[in-house]
Amino acid sequence: MKGQNKLFIAIVIALILGVGIGGFVHLQYPESAEPFSKNIKLLGTVFIRLVQMIIAPLVFTTLVVGIAKMSDIKMIGRVGTKAMLWFISASLVSLFIGLILVNWLEPGHVTKLPIQDAASAEELLKSSKGFSMEDFVKHVIPKSIFEAFATNEVLQIVVFSIMFGIALANLGDEYSQPVVKLFDIVAHGILKMVGYIMWFAPLGVLGAIAAVVATNGFEIFKVYAIYLRDFFFALGILWLVLLLVGYLIIGNRLFELLRRIKEPLLIAFSTTSSEAVFPKLVEELERFGCNNRVVSFILPLGYSFNLDGSMMYMTFASIFIAQIYGIEMTIGQQITMLLVLMLTSKGIAGVPRASLVIIVATCSMFGIPPEGIALILPIDHFCDMGRSMTNVLGNALATSAVSKWEGQLDNHGGDL
């Protein structure tokens, strides 16, 4: 928590410095704004490349380990199936709400930032026009896993990881356990790296903001106010949908559930970490009346597959960055992006700022400048507060709903 607060303060300081430096260049030396922007933006490039460096191994190891450990679903069978149906439905609803509202509210159309590399923009236009089923299949099915790793083809890595994880899960513990343990250790090592890389974020923010303000002036700050307003409005709509579905399933006990989980919700909001409240959430759900076996199975699974707030944010932020750069995406491309996010986001649950890592990968895949992520990084902390809280609500509702469907929800609440 202390580290997170220090990083947040460092990002705020970098933001203020970036605004000051960029504004000074914009007002005093307008003729030097372009070369200055080009050079200082390298700080942002360093940060983005560091994030891109760990995407492939992170998706691979976490997804393989997650699926290999999901062999428990065979024993719990019916409960697992119901849980996965909830997770997939909730994820799709969250993604669609983000997609619909970002297209309706258009927060990124307040201002336009030029794409620096005109050649890459032309290439994007050509490739998007010529997009065919053959191209899609080539993007999904890897010819070589090493090629997919080398070129950061996340979707291909996901396909290979799913198949490899299923194979390990069906191999038997004697053979699979050492491999799963090895990948688990590697995944934890990469998660440590994510923590280190995030300390480069203030430099990335400084470079990106200074470059933007130097060339575009102070108009960019209108964007931040509108972005936060529209995101929290979209989050409010998602809460209404989740609570309505929860009420239809567990009735008036929904209000009791909300009273029970108010503390975990507040902790998640203030620490921006849904993982930080996991033990407390287990305790409160069991006191609410959920069967402890259902809780111990569904809640960890939910933390991997049911991050509703993060899912909505990923479509919202990705399309927002495209709007900022004036990149028009067809409905077909946006639906494809939604399905890509649906798959890729399942691989790195629990990663600090996982949403940003996925957004960078998705933007690269769809020809949206990935450096655009640095523009929303200064206010990501505030967005993270809302989406962490929403993730906790979504998992509490999922666990309660499946307990109710299984007839395992005590009416009176209970002890641990």
Q: Could you list the spans in which at least 5 consecutive residues all have pLDDT below 50?
A: 115-132
Count up the helices: 20
CATH architecture: Orthogonal Bundle
Q: How many structural domains?
A: 1
Given helix and strand content, the structural type is mainly alpha
Helix content: over 70%
Question: What distance separates the N and C termini?
Answer: 28 Å
Average pLDDT score: 79
Please characterize this protein's 3D structure:
The protein has 416 residues and is mainly α. It has a single domain (1-406), classed as Proton glutamate symport protein (Orthogonal Bundle). It contains 20 helices and no strands. The chain has helices at 2-28, 33-68, 72-76, 78-105, 118-129, 133-140, 145-150, 154-169, 173-197, 201-216, 220-250, 253-260, 262-271, 278-288, 292-305, 308-324, 331-344, 354-365, 373-376, 380-405. The two termini are 28 Å apart.
